[in-house]
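Homework help board

Subject: predicted structure for assignment chain

Our instructor gave us this sequence and asked us to write out the predicted structure in token form, then describe one feature. I got the tokens but I'm not sure how to describe them. Can anyone check?
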Amino acid sequence: MLYATLRIALFTVMCLFNGSTGTNVVLQHEHNIKLDEICDIGANNKLLLSIIYVESGGDPTKWAKGEDAVGCLQIRRISVRDANRILKKQKNKKRYKYKDRWNCEKSRDMFVLLTEYYLPGGCDEDIARFWNGGPRGPNKKATKIYWRKVRRKLLKLSKKK
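My token output:
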């Protein structure tokens, strides 16, 4: 149990930091993770970590074949298209590709872009329910169960200091 918890923690930390340089940390035999640094998780990132945990258990290689949701945040193609639409509207030349869903850093950037666009200054519950149910997610009854899962993990992370 402790090993699994540490493995998930390392995967989620990997999603928060750019892995272009640094030391190698090997988890089991299937993943090489490069981390620039490991530091305390700030309050702003605890919601993101909780969502990553609920979505993929911290596994950046996870793929929900039936939904074509991939990566640590289980991003679908429609979200990539929506992120690109927002970038175009903001006159930003940056664009995401479908394969960027496998990259935790780019997934996190898409998450931030989408949540800030649809829910500027939104509360944790609204953001989590949006991520699960789309732009109308905070109003859908179906996303309440998802929010309970995220909140449970968020409370566990908040207790750890």
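Reply (TA_rk): Your tokens look well-formed. For the description, you could write something like this. Residues 130 and 144 are 11 Å apart (CA to CA). That's the kind of observation they're looking for.
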